[in-house]
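U., I forgot to send this yesterday:
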Amino acid sequence: MQRGMIPKHLHFDNPNPRVDWDELPVRVTAEPTPWPESDDHPPRAAVSAFGLSGTNAHVVLEGHPFAGGTGRGWVSGPRLPVGESNVSDGETREQALEVRQGRLLPLSARSDDALKRMAKDYLDWLDERTSSTDEDLHGLLADMAWTASVGRRHFAHRAGVVFRDADSLKDGLEVVAAEGRPSPALVEGTQAKVAFAYTGEGGACVGMGRDLYRSEPVVRLVLDRCDEAVRNQRGASLLDVMFGVSGDLDDPAWSALSVWALQSALAALWESVGVRPNVVAGDGLGEIAAGQAAGVYGLDEGLLLVTARDMESAPVDVDVAPAKLELVSGDTGRAMAADEVLDAAYWQRQRRATPGLDRSVATLANLGVEVVVEIGPQAILAASFADLWPASFASPSVLVSQRLAAPDRTDQDDTFVAAVAGAYEAGLAISFRGLFADEARSRISIPGYPFEHRRHWISPPRRFAVAAG
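Result:
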């Protein structure tokens, strides 16, 4: 495996003619064979040994990058075709994605006590590694997060520790080790019902989405596509306006397009980590993005609706379809019927139909929603959901995709990673590979499960004394 060569099978000369070798997806190596390289996974081999005394052993080996090959690692997360940046500020911008700073360490166990012990085990593991300065600590911690994410089964008692470095990881682990986490909201193996709530354009702010654009390939793909469409339509860059390079984000036409584009990118980013809505609702402009998420129309049609809406033009010709998931109308606050189709004029007039989400909140509660994900450039609706949620229903977990950041901040924002941690703790099934898109990571040795070591000895039978007669 280290040499990248599969050896010749010992004493093998003639294949069994009764085996249909052309149909089977296996073959016996009659000669030394170069080990096939793959972009999707590392080399793996299974080795079996059968002893004459009856001992059987089977070991699965997973290798590191080929020593004699390309020298590359293997891709952990999905590799996406990210092209050149469309943002122009008079200079050539870096086209490569920035290294992610925020990471998520998912911890889970079958009991709160076991979860606390797991956090303590990770603290010991971290102390051993930070005492040495020889290792690439940043890469090591990323590999640790990768291994814990994709290499372990995830139980009901959960803690999502968001960190940037060894110090912040230690701080988070110490909290879990001391306090644990509340009892899980869901029975293991079940899945919470999720609603995406889309904000209106009131949350537009300069720099919105910039961090995610720089580090997340899914976001860059969607925003570049939106930017190209707007360039073709208006002759100016949407991304330049969003990121404060040029243009006026206070112009309602630009703010509406910016919020809609970011919402489209955030929805795609959530989908990349396995979180999809069962229900969607929107506030004003946000209802256009909600309809798009529900499959009523596509991205290009959504752009036309947003543009026509802000220009208050005649209804555009957009093909619409019944929603593919539960859609709550901003006009009525009720869930749309499965076969109900709202024409393009309905979506275009959402500037005037802005009663807010007040009437929609009760509908979401009645639909059994347990997790609400706010989709927008900053937290606007989260507090409203806490205040308006009917007291007769258990309060949902409310997750914020983005928050308003300081204009002079230069480091990445970890809001989305923290939201994924909240989704994980709420019991959602997370596709962790999405957090490592376009990265090459490897599995390493990390703390194992802290079994509780309960004794199950069989009590000896009771002895009865017999009195002498």
